[in-house]
Design goal:
Elements lengths: L2 E9 L2 H12 L2 E4 L6 E5 L8 E6 L10 E3 L3 H10 L3 E9 L3 E7 L5 E7 L7
Parallel strand pairs: 1-4, 5-8
Antiparallel strand pairs: 1-5, 2-3, 3-4, 6-7, 7-8
Length: 123
């Protein structure tokens, strides 16, 4: 069954946001060595929960509250639309990470879905 595996926080000042979450909740931030400015967020060690990421706020990008791990983005795009959801951003590669798509549920809530694939976008 698909479960939430990641969340994103967007910020106009990522350092200010990182400082806030580090101070308030003890989260740690590590700069991602990828093609965009992005920090990985660790929300804890052995405790149950999910980790996330922090990126620059982009006016053209929708907010994504959390991302579901799915075995196939293509299959779940079909399932989402058949269940009454809307695809907001079609399947796209995050190089070296996997395939991602964004969707809205019938109430307009946004979510992401990710298919792990280290070869995504590297061809």
């Amino acid at each position: 069954m698909p479960r939430p595996v990641h969340f994103d926080i967007s910020a106009e000042d990522p350092q200010r946001a990182a400082d806030f979450y580090s101070t308030a909740f003890g989260w740690t931030f590590t700069k991602w060595d990828g093609p965009m400015e992005y920090w990985l967020i660790s929300t804890g060690g052995e405790e149950a929960g999910i980790d996330g990421g922090l990126g620059l706020r982009r006016p053209d990008a929708p907010e994504v509250p959390f991302t579901l791990d799915v075995p196939s983005v293509d299959d779940y795009v079909t399932r989402v639309t058949e269940a009454g959801g809307t695809i907001v951003q079609p399947k796209s590669a995050i190089p070296g990470v996997g395939w991602m798509a964004l969707f809205a549920d019938p109430e307009g809530n946004l979510f992401g879905m990710m298919e792990a694939d280290e070869t995504a976008g590297l061809d």
